[in-house]
Write a structure and sequence with these properties.
alpha+beta; 2 domains; about 50% helix; Glutaredoxin; about 200 residues; globular; homodimer; 7 helices
Chain lengths: ~200, ~200
Amino acid sequence: MLTLYDYLPSGNGYKVRLLLSQLGRPFELVEKDILKGETRTPEFLAINPNGRIPVLVLEDGRRLAESDAILFYLAEGTPYLPEDRFERAEVLQWLFFEQYSHEPSIAVARFWIHSLGKRTEWAARLEEKWQRGHQALAVMERHLDGRRFFVGERYGIADIALYAYTHVAEEGEFDLSGYPRIRAWLDRVADQPGHVMITQGVF
Amino acid sequence: MLTLYDYLPSGNGYKVRLLLSQLGRPFELVEKDILKGETRTPEFLAINPNGRIPVLVLEDGRRLAESDAILFYLAEGTPYLPEDRFERAEVLQWLFFEQYSHEPSIAVARFWIHSLGKRTEWAARLEEKWQRGHQALAVMERHLDGRRFFVGERYGIADIALYAYTHVAEEGEFDLSGYPRIRAWLDRVADQPGHVMITQGVF
């Protein structure tokens, strides 16, 4: 069976749990509390030298880090990743957009405010996070004009990756009311068969 | 012919130029000076709504953004990307590591110091960039223990992506003298057939 090292409130971990649910693939969940430093212990650094969850461990012991690389690996040969070469590249474009232009603002604002409860301590840096996060949301809103999903008009891992932190963006004080296409897309994603909630670790 | 919107000092653009050189694929270079705001004009935002270079335009007009997605697209079916599914996922793991844990520290420190000449203005934030950048370099140094290249003991796009900003890290005041394996790997990458320099736009 697959093993997933994960932290349930993590959107990065949630991406993998959501896809595993939709693929109907059972897995053993090993929780690591990042707030307690459990991903920076020598034991965990032997699993992922970069000290981050999620990490997927295959049946034969091989390990894979980086949430969006895990998504791509699990989705190959399934309906969640297109077969067309250019469409696969478009999926990767959105996965890199998510990790570079979206997560570092939207997930980090949520982490500081909602997970750490340190809104005041990070007030000066939050302005920048909100500004950049809204830039990313504007790019998504524009792309969704006339589209139901991010690539090829079919639900897949680009949607999963972007959904993970967008659907909890309000926990980082991002107001989504000005993004009607994003809100409609969030509803479409939540309506997909096999959908699970972010804190639903075992299903 | 392929068209590449790019800015020559950019490591992200350089990744694509280096691979195109090694693949022997000619391309038309369209330079956009990010320091002059040329990637934030309405004209350029119509090409990439996220306002970043590089952007690859195919012969049929289709466009692709995000340097590492472009690398993956161009490398499929060539010796620069493994055919094995798990090795491809390992390549992606390193590409996401580069964009999330490496580039935002090492490239940004270089940009502030070397490109903008604003070392003093950004002094407070540079400490954090140096700390995180050295964490990323330490992960690379550890991985290169007993390895010649990042994935499958074969030069490929994981090496290209990590080389781009590592080989100019000293322009961001990262001292590489404590990373002997990284320095030996930089030399191996520079020795590959078809190698070009970062500012060598046309070849």
